[in-house]
Amino acid sequence: MIKKLTCISCPIGCELSVSLDESGKILKIEGNRCPRGKEYAITEITNPQRILPISVKVEDGEMELVSAKTDKPVPKKKMYEIIEYIKKLKVKAPVKRGDLIVEDILGTGANLIATRTVNKKS
Amino acid sequence: MRRENVDVLIIGGGAAGLAAAIEAKKFGVKTLLLERDRSTGGVLNQCIHNGFGLHVFKAELTGPEFMEKLWEELGNLDEVIRNNYTVLKIDPEKKEVITLSEEGIVVFKPKALIMATGARERPLNSLRIPGSRVAGVFTAGVAQKMVNIYNRLPGNRVLIVGSGDIGLIMARRLKIEGMDVVGVVEIMPEPGGLIRNVVQCLDDFNIPLWLSHTVFKIHGKERLEGVTIGKVDENFKPIPGTERFLEVDTLVASVGLIPQNELIEDFVEMDAINRGPVVDDLMRTSVEWIFAAGNNVAIHDLVDFVYEEGKIAGENAAKYVLGEKLPEVKYRFERGDNVGVLLPQKFTGSQPFKMYVRSRKSLEKSAISFSGRTIRKFNWKIRPSEMIDLVVKNFEGLPKEILVEVNQID
Amino acid sequence: MKVFVIGAGITGSLITRELSKYDLEVHVIEKAPDIGWGVTKANSAIVHGGYDDPPESVRAKFAAPGNEMYDKLSKELEFDFLRTGSYVIAFKREDVEYLKKLKERGMKNGVTNLEILTAKELKEKEPNLNEEIIAALWCPTAGITEPWEVSIAAIENAQENGAIVHLGEKVTDIIVQNQRVKKILTDKGEYDADIVINAAGLFADEIAKMAGIGDFEIFPRKGEYILLDEKLKGLVNAVIFPTPTKKSKGILVVPTVDGGILLGPNAVDLPKDQKENLETTRDGLNEVYEKSRKLVPKIDLSYTVKTFAGLRPETKDKDFIIGATKVWGFINVAGIRSPGLTAAPAIAKYIAEKVLSEDLGLNLSKKLDFNPYRRKIPHLNDSNLKEWEELVKKDPSFGRTVCFCNNVSEGEILEAIRRGARTLDGVKFRTRASFGRCQGGFCSLKILEIISRELSIPLEEIKQNYENSWIIKGKVRP
């Protein structure tokens, strides 16, 4: 059977056609304009993953929240669990862009990193 | 009233303005950027999602990351940036830019000016949706700022109006942060934002997208209590019998971005379809010392393109100040079939340049042509919501007036 | 002598101010959280010439005199008032006959400089009107203002002169003994009262019933409006009226003091139990568009800033009900529909000089230290740059812009809070922040922050306007 997917690796969003056999094995991938499309199709069928952009509470900062993201995609099926985990976190200012907030979040192999700098409240 | 001479003055510290400042500075001209908000970055500050910098930095960055990289590229921010400066008026005869800030009125006298004033959001009430005027109706950008910067939630249960990118992004954001997101209504038969966002924001989170639907009525006494939504036909007229009541206390509306050109529209040639100034490939407007870049020229989809435009404007403004004779415009584009937003509207032909076109319709297989000559074929679906970007480098045999068309091919 | 004015709309506010000129204990009780949020907040904002009212009516008695008072009043209270003039236009011969009748009526009402213009003369002054118009009645004394601004200014001035303002307080009963007013009961307390002035707008009949007076009914008449962007400034220079119908003055095209263009209102009678129905409707907005386009064909709805609806307090006889009643001390100022805004200053004077002094026989003495002047909140667009710079040097908060569309500074917002603003609308109506084309997109969050800081209340407790109009639910991360 043919599964249609939109690749989300970049804003172009190629429409992919993935041919699968009865056991779910991927036979052919078409529609991608770059190799990332193929990679995306494979993971999307077997173990869909997403980068998670989110906010983390900051203590003593100029801002109440620091924006953060997982530095690698995390399994979609663990998304809600990861979100709930992150909601309970707090970091102390100052936080620098790129700072590691959580290493290997919930065993996914992805780190949660700060995506902006928040200085200490003056 | 202090007067200050500047070589290159940039109005607006979003992506376009920062890029312009970075480039202009490289030429050693006295560069100043005026930002009316407390700090620069514009919407990059609040766009905590991915999708920025793919072309420019070959990386998928979030808005704040992209913004901080621009700050790093700019170097000494204090030297170039003045925050909390509002431009009150531009006097094109005197070449003066009158500003207000805590130090009072400062009149800048630039040799070259770059307008990077970006866009504003269309308020929902300007769409004349019948019903009550209630609290709980927000534009998507305001909801985004409220959540990401102010750490506050706009309500409990929300309907997103408009499937532009920012509406899709906010659907996901609000759901992640615990709001009940009942769905997204989109009046057009197709989503208004990038398909990748429909996947990542709606499909992933099981948020329904109701195409060809709109809000028929807003209900509530002081705070929103619900909306009646329904389907519309090809002429956007309500189809009777399709009405449905949704109990929501919050509306987040992503119903259009409007370029902000109030400071220049009285004396600069404007393009009614772009709602921005007519520009050439050097980002010059019809006034030779005024350049423009970014969302005030036309609404763009990717910040990378805005950044590139800003750089071009910065470079050419600096060259203008240094007395370099900039090439003259030789070619003009005319809009033909199916062409909506288009920029630049004219070009010099002195160097390759990037042009941007929005198709008015979605087309499965199409091609863009210049006066009948096919320039590029598209094997993928072209949508109005996804700007076509094209590098034009072959000027041989092109007429002076070029008819740009985007047509279906077999 | 304890005087209680019920209702701080345009009429109640001006009466309160007028009475604060005298040695009286003057109170004004307003059930909404702020001033002028009823009928006053949503209408055409026109100070009419006064020719339209039947000469024997109560309306006619106060309209032209009220109009004349606006020059002095606007200078004393520092609110915006522009004498734009107005046209009533005619498309057909019968309409022109009607214009002549209006002119005569005007003469009887004391409006003497009306002129009927030809199509050619009209075109020179208003080039964007429908080419099919054959004549127009020109009234040079008509004008435009901002009704809530007048009310706010009047109350501020009244307060300065000793009046006590009760906001967010609702009258629940009026105690009458031996056909005399004795007490007022509200949801917050009870007060001994000698005089009660019923300026309660849409609810004036309900207030009157509390005092045992049931001889009139108020029913709501809804009118919808479309406001167009000030980029259209100059589309019309004066107020444009169609030939009126029996029901109303019709759907108008009105310039606003901000430079915008207001279209409307239509007129739909609502049942008495819908005195709070401010919903716009598809049909209503379409009607406003169609009829205003007939007057000014160039009207382009893509310039819409917002739409809204207002209610007029209509009575059976379509006239004001003003004066003393069988209950001594209870005075009606009810049914103040069009030309209410126009008439209000004259009504206020009348209440003091005729009703209280003569009809009730009170010996009113004027305060020697009454200060008629109220200073408006400084605004950049009202000043010149040099003046503004001096202001900024004294107080840098006037150099920090909060509302970009209308150039409203933090200093003005702080002043609005000092003067009583507690809600977003309270700030909005005192400063015009959020009134512009982005409708608060860029400034609302900043204004909330400022209110929160100044009043030391959490963001989530700040309301848009009324008690239940919460804006923010709570924190994302507690």
How does this model look, in words?
The complex is a heterotrimer of chains A (122), B (410) and C (478). With 122 residues, chain A is of the alpha+beta class. Helix content of chain A is 17%, strand content 34%. Chain A folds into two domains: 2-46; 53-114, CPE0013-like (CPE0013-like fold, Roll). Chain A is elongated. By secondary structure, chain B is an alpha/beta fold. Chain B contains seven helices and 30 strands. Chain B has helices at 15-26, 63-74, 77-80, 140-148, 165-176, 195-203, 303-321, and strands at 2-11, 31-35, 50-52, 61-62, 81-83, 86-91, 96-101, 104-115, 119-121, 137-139, 152-153, 157-161, 180-186, 209-211, 213-220, 224-231, 244-246, 250-253, 257-259, 270-271, 276-277, 290-292, 331-335, 339-343, 346-347, 353-359, 366-370, 373-378, 388-392, 401-408. In chain B, strand 1 (2-11), helix 1 (15-26) and strand 2 (31-35) form a beta-alpha-beta unit. Chain C has 478 residues and is α+β, with helices and mostly antiparallel strands. Chain C has helices spanning 10-19, 58-77, 93-108, 119-125, 147-160, 204-210, 282-295, 340-359, 385-394, 410-418, 424-431, 444-455; strands at residues 2-6, 25-30, 46-47, 81-82, 86-90, 115-118, 135-139, 143-145, 164-167, 171-177, 180-186, 190-192, 195-198, 219-228, 239-241, 252-255, 261-264, 268-269, 304-314, 321-324, 330-334, 401-403, 408-409, 474-475. Chain C has a six-stranded mixed sheet with strand order 9-2-1-13-21-20, with helices on both faces. In chain C, strands 14, 16, 17, 18 and 19 form a five-stranded antiparallel sheet that branches. In chain C, strands 6-7-5-15 form a four-stranded mixed sheet. In chain C, a hairpin with a 3-residue loop joins strand 11 and strand 12 (190-192). Chains in contact: A-B, A-C, B-C. Chains B and C meet through strand 7, helix 4 and strand 11 of B and helix 7, strand 19, helix 9, helix 12 and strand 24 of C. Strand 11 (152-153) of chain B pairs antiparallel with strand 24 of chain C.
